[in-house]
Design brief:
This protein is α+β, with helices and mostly antiparallel strands. The protein has 2 domains: 208 residues, no CATH class; 41 residues. It is 32% helix and 33% strand. Strands 1, 2, 3, 4, 5, 6, 7, 8, 9 and 10 form a 10-stranded antiparallel sheet that branches. The longest helix is centred in the C-terminal third of the chain and has 38 residues. The two termini are 23 Å apart.
């Protein structure tokens, strides 16, 4: 999902949220509506022995640098150039914003802990796909730091990309720009095709494995294929993701864009 859509959902969408932190306390720490420059550094790794992919964005220039690092090797640059990222408009919100996207709300996630001080808000949730921790820290009058850390594991349910529908529907209604709303509507329209392709690919993989298992000549080979089938049913490798972004308020309204 485009990053601006995710940001619009996380900080602009009003809706049900954990009651332990009041709207007044939340809004004292979270960035207020306005225009923001965002610098970010995010990394993700699918398994301990796989490559780490790192995205670094310079909000002032819009320059994006993407590298992949295999264990024991030097980073390899995948992309270095324009990101198309513009200053981000955070629109007005009513009450307290949702920290987690809609599809990771109470039905899918259990709040483990949340805490707040005059400058820092931290929430930790155990979700169906794994654990998610989000921290918002107020650094000064016009600067905020946001960090995200998650350890997730794919599962048969994760192959159902219709789980993205609530987030996209929210963004189609509430994203701060017409471009972002149109982008969300386009992604919604494309969900059925993507879901069908994913299910077809999974079905073919399973059928191929069953065929191989039936024709396997040894018990060891049959057992190895059985493990692959079990892994297919139970889920794929886990993913560890971290991100840190700095928000700098450069305007009190989006008219400054």
């Amino acid at each position: 999902m485009p990053r601006t859509l995710f940001l619009a959902v996380v900080l602009a969408a009003a809706g049900p949220s954990d009651a332990a932190i009041t709207p007044d306390a939340f809004n004292k720490v979270a960035p207020p509506p306005g225009l923001y420059r965002i610098d970010s550094d995010a990394s993700m790794r699918m398994a301990p022995d796989s490559a780490t992919v790192r995205h670094q964005l310079d909000g002032a220039s819009g320059k994006l640098d993407v590298t992949a690092t295999e264990p024991g090797k030097s980073p390899q640059r995948i992309y270095n150039g324009a990101s198309g990222q513009k200053p981000y408009c955070l629109p007005p919100r009513n009450g307290k914003a949702q920290i987690l996207p809609p599809e990771m709300a109470a039905s899918a996630c259990k709040n483990i802990s949340e805490s707040i001080t005059d400058t820092t808000l931290t929430t930790e949730s155990q979700c169906a796909i794994g654990k998610v921790k989000i921290t918002i820290r107020k650094l000064g009058n016009d600067r905020w730091e946001m960090t995200h850390e998650s350890d997730t594991k794919t599962s048969p349910a994760a192959s159902n990309i219709n789980a993205m529908r609530p987030m996209l529907e929210n963004a189609a209604r509430n994203a701060s720009t017409a471009e972002a709303r149109a982008q969300a509507r386009q992604m919604l329209a494309d969900l059925p095709r993507q879901q069908a392709e994913m299910q077809a690919a999974l079905a073919k993989t399973r059928a191929d494995l069953l065929t191989e298992q039936a024709s396997a000549s040894s018990a060891a080979e049959k057992a190895e294929i059985a493990k692959q089938l079990q892994a297919l049913d139970q889920g794929g490798p886990g993913m560890h993701a971290t991100s840190r972004s700095l928000w700098t308020r450069i305007g009190g309204s989006c008219a400054a864009r």
